[in-house]
Amino acid sequence: MIIDALVAEIGSTTTVVNAFDNLASDNPKFIGSGFSPTTVIEGDVTIGLNKAIDNLKNSLGVRTLEARETFASSSAAGGLKMSVHGLVYDMTVRAAKEAALGAGANIKMITSGLLEDYQIEEIRKQPLNIIMISGGVDFGERITSIENTKKIAALQLGIPIIYAGNIQNHKIIEKIFADHNQSEFLYISDNVYPKIDVLEVEKTRKIIQDAFEKHIIHAPGMEKVKSVITDNIIPTPGAVMEASILLQKVIGDLVVVDIGGATTDVHSVTSGKKEIEKIMIAPEPFAKRTVEGDLGVYINRRNLIDLITKEKIIITLDTNELELDSVLDNYQPIPSANQVPLTEILAQEAMNLALERHCGRLVNVYTGSGKTTYAEGKDLTAVNFIIGTGGALTRLPHRKEIINNVLNKENRLLLKPGKNTEILIDNHYIMASLGVLSKKHPEAAIKLLKSSLEIR
């Protein structure tokens, strides 16, 4: 059997391959999925990839399967691990952080100001994939990013270093890296914070993904990945963001929520409402991602249980503590029938908290001249659609009710989507794969997205 494309999603524990055909037609098709445990620990991710392809062949009932193109997204071995170093946290550091998160990074370290010796030592010890240096608006402060570049280049880490600070420094940054024989690892982007209250992160986000793709084949366990994957490889959260941005152009402003076993990601693509923009005290990116590392329905289930409390869970499930403990003692990554009701409670709490942390809020300030209201954070009040993807929100029986319950929880100070926001589900669980596929086949990716989301 010959098909147009295979897209692998290489996760920390599971590798999924999704098959697509007729990509050049008006009716592209999602054919099916195959699964296997990820084999990074074994030292060769292609073992798991090939097993997932074998699983797909079995499910399709074919002996051979050949794809004209193969793509991948990866969050294996911790995904894209980055550090960010800027001048002032609320300005250039925050802008660099937004670019990194939007590209799908897992940020391991953030610093502001001149790097201290102990921070340099921490950078040396961290298992980083990419480092980003920012600092200074264009034609503004120069010294901090120059000095930080000297210290980081001197480490000779042999990993991509992205400079996204004051454009006046480009020549000297290039010379610093040349002096340390590290020029091949330097990527220069536009300033992520070129003017006061201006964020420009899109070009840097793309450079991060390009650098990841070029260097991911050197990561442990990933050295042979290019023997199976012939086209784009990008971070899985970045792939979801690519799909979100593409879809927003077609259906309007949206939020995507991905609840996993370890984390909950929220992606929003919206400028918000004009009346909120007028009272906003700091800029926000058009496309924003947040990741909550403490909110997961399997690895971090204890965190969620503590937040909800056992007492409330027992009442909601109409059970007792002994029965609840029995369910928890045998809790599985993919919940069994008797575990699903608890997983749904945990998923709702994870989504509610993640959305509250992602969205902005109104703040009332009382002065001698009366009350003043300003807005901070991301305004989600103009969002038309909220989309559920990831294992929990594509597979749990009451997934739409979970989302609806979160939307109906009122807090007039939070700039969250309204209760009338339309709920869509990534039924085929292919949003990340389509984000990768959209790099070369955007029209087919949109049609397949609309099909999975049941948008007519």
Descriptive report:
This protein has helices spanning 45-60, 89-102, 117-125, 143-154, 170-179, 202-215, 236-251, 274-277, 301-308, 310-317, 321-329, 340-358, 390-395, 399-407, 431-437, 442-452; strands at 2-10, 14-21, 29-37, 66-74, 80-86, 105-112, 130-133, 161-163, 186-188, 233-235, 254-259, 264-269, 287-292, 360-367, 370-376, 385-389, 414-415, 422-425. The protein is an alpha/beta fold and 456 residues long. The chain has three domains: 1-78 and 430-456, Nucleotidyltransferase, domain 5 (2-Layer Sandwich); 80-212, Rossmann fold, CATH 3.40.50.280; 248-425. The protein has a five-stranded mixed β-sheet. The chain has a five-stranded parallel β-sheet with strand order 6-5-7-8-9, sandwiched between helices. Strands 13-12-11-16-18 form a five-stranded mixed β-sheet, with helices on both faces.
Q: Brief description of this entry?
A:
38% of the residues lie in helices and 23% in strands. The chain contains 16 helices and 18 strands.
Give structural attributes.
23% strand, Nucleotidyltransferase, domain 5, 38% helix, single chain, 456 residues, five-stranded mixed sheet, Rossmann fold, alpha/beta, globular, 3 domains
Lay out the secondary structure.
Layout: E1 2-10, E2 14-21, E3 29-37, H1 45-60, E4 66-74, E5 80-86, H2 89-102, E6 105-112, H3 117-125, E7 130-133, H4 143-154, E8 161-163, H5 170-179, E9 186-188, H6 202-215, E10 233-235, H7 236-251, E11 254-259, E12 264-269, H8 274-277, E13 287-292, H9 301-308, H10 310-317, H11 321-329, H12 340-358, E14 360-367, E15 370-376, E16 385-389, H13 390-395, H14 399-407, E17 414-415, E18 422-425, H15 431-437, H16 442-452
Parallel strand pairs: 1-4, 4-10, 5-6, 5-7, 7-8, 8-9, 11-16, 16-18
Antiparallel strand pairs: 1-2, 2-3, 11-12, 12-13, 14-15, 14-17
Helix pairs in contact: 2-6, 4-5, 7-15, 7-16, 12-14, 15-16
